[in-house]
Structures are given as C-alpha cells and as structure tokens.
Amino acid sequence: MNTHLPAARVVVVGSFNVDHVWRCDALPAAGATIAGRYASGPGGKGFNQAVAAVRAGADTTFVCALGDDAGGRLARDLAAADGLALRVDASEEPTGTAGIYVDAHGRNTIVIGAGANATLSADFATGQADVLVAAGVVLAQLESPADTVLATLQAARQCGATTLLNPAPANAATTTELLAHADVITPNETEFAALLARHLGERISADDVATLDGVTLHQHCRQLFPHGTVVVTLGATGVYVSHPDDALRGDARPHYRVAAEAATVVDTTGAGDAFNGALAASLAEAALPCFADHVRFANRYAALSTERAGAALAMPLRADLAARYGA
Q1: I need a labelling partner for 323 at 20 to 30 A (CA). Which of 12, 99, 143, 158 fits?
Q2: Residue 284's closest CA among 126, 82, 79, 54?
Q3: What does the pLDDT look like over 227-238, one tens digit per residue?
Q4: Is 273 among the residues known to form the active site?
C-alpha cells in the first residue's frame, strides 16, 4: 500500500474497464488473423489515472460506475489494495471492458465497451460534495458521459479545486462549455489535432503537431483555450506547455517544451494516464515552485510506467521514482 501525503487530495471522476490484451509482433490489419499472447487486467482512463495519483503520493478518491459482476469486484479489490477510496454509482450494466492490441514496439490500438461507464450520473458525481470540497485537484476524462464531466468540473470549481481535463479519447465530443470549466487541459497530439479541427477549423495532422515551432503551437493553444494552461503530451518527443501571458503558474515563460525522459519501453498503454495522474498528484501537493517542475515529475512518472506491461498495474510507486531519479 502506498504512503499518502494528507495535504495532497485528488478526486478522479471517470471510467473503469477490464482490459483484454493481446501482444503480437505487429498490429493486426483488416481481415488478418495473427498469433498473440493474451492477458487480462484492470484499466480504463479514470482508474489508470486514479491509481497513478495514489501511487504518486496523493490521497485519492475515484468516482465511477461499476456493474455487479466480476469486473466490479476486481475494481473494489484493487482499489482497496492501493488505498484508493471508491465512490461507486451502482449500475445494472456490465462493468466496462476494453480490447487492446500491443505490438513489438509498444504501440497499441484499443476498442472500448463502455458498459457501466456510460451510466455514471451527474447527480451521483456532484453528490460527492465532501470529497470535492476537500480536493486540491479534480481530474476527469471523456470515457464518462459529457454532462457528468461538465457538472463535476462546475462543482469542483465552486469548491475551489483546480480542474484538470484530459480530453481523451480524441473522438469524444469536447464542447466549448466543457473547456470553459477546466483550468488545465492535457491532450496528446492526436487529441490536440482533433480539438483544433473541432473548435477552430484548423486542420493539422497529429503527426505534425510535435514538429510545429513553439510560437505557432502557442498561438493555437491560446486560440483554443485562452483562459487556461494547455499541456500537450508528445510521446517520445516530450511535452509542450502553453500558459496565458497573465497566468504563468510560477513559470518564467508563457510556453516551452520539456524533453522526454529516457526509458526502455515495454508498453505505452496507459502512459498518458500515468502522466495525468502524476500531474494531478503533484499539483495537489503544491510543494514545487513552478508548473514546469510538476510537468517534469509527471514526465518521469509516465516514462517509468512504459517500462512495465499493462495499464493500471504498470503505474510505479513514488519510491520507484526516487530510486530512479532521486525525486
């Protein structure tokens, strides 16, 4: 069980899935039948991020919907083992599932069966007032109903928490109102390209996002999200950060890049979730002087997560970071 820092309180609202994972030499093409190695374990962006937050040192509560089945029992057992507090909206639908293929380079494709995740209600999420009012950071993604995510961010803001929105997956509907109630957004390059297309009509290939110069990226970020901080995770090329000029969160510059940390990659599944959970934990702890330091902490945490197979179970402990980086 992880050792918690009582001052660092995080609430994660989101999804839990039972992951069915096939590891193969190459990702399957349409119509192909290939050989692979199978394993099953816990996942879902919300659960991955909640486990990352608690293992990174934050006192974390996970608000979710679970079915009355083996998947739901698995979620409860794993949360208890990590000291992760659960608030469960009981669902008549089966617990969520995901089918994941991972190739020899650690790349993946994922298919989600939402199940109970689609039934997480706004009333239930916002009804967790006792944990929302105590939270330093409230983190949400888009594998739960959009109205639930919006209501949660609104309630969190009213309680004085920093709201962190991971606009994932890329095909989820991210409304202008939803963005308006987030203080920080954390898209990857695919999600960032989708946001630019949806909200600004700007067509940029996801593969080209990392190659854009910093000034151009900053301009896009400020048009997309003028009131808050944008953190674009760029995989092996690192992280890009853009702040409003009048809200630098302790940084010296309004935009900059943070290089990726070296890692011996086994599996990138859940790396973005590792980053988000660790960023939420670090921001809630508030012990670092500038936002860039929080990003570096999250970057290291995410890099370490890729050296292990799996999603939630691959999340490192804070002690693992200290052993590697002296953090």
Answers
A1: 12
A2: 54
A3: 999 999 999 899
A4: yes
Domain assignment of residue 144, given as a range = 5-316
Interacting residues of 268 by C-beta distance below 8 A, sequence separation 6+:
106, 107, 108, 235, 306
Mean pLDDT of the chain: 94
**Beta pairing partners, 21:** 39, 100
CA 278 to chain centre: 9
SS3 state of residue 66 = strand
Phi–psi pair at 6, nearest 5 degrees: -55, -30
Q: Is residue 24 part of a domain?
A: yes
To the nearest 10 degrees (0 to 180), the angle between helices 45-55 and 70-82 is 20
Which residue's entry shows tokens 């959970």? 277
Helix, strand, or coil here: 118? helix
**161 belongs to a structural domain:** yes
Q: Is residue 204 part of a domain?
A: yes
Indicate which residue of 59, 82, 183, 273 is catalytic.
273
Query: For residues 67 and 88, what is the distance between their CA atoms, to the nearest angstrom?
Result: 9
| 292 found inside a domain | yes
- Domain count of the chain? 1
Nearest in space to 90 (alpha carbons), one of 103, 102, 75 = 75
| More confident site: 295 or 173 | 295
Query: What is the domain-level CATH number for residue 163?
Result: 3.40.1190.20
Q: What is the pLDDT of residue 100?
A: 87
DSSP assignments along 141-182, one per residue? -SSS-HHHHHHHHHHHHHTTPEEEE---STTS---HHHHHT-
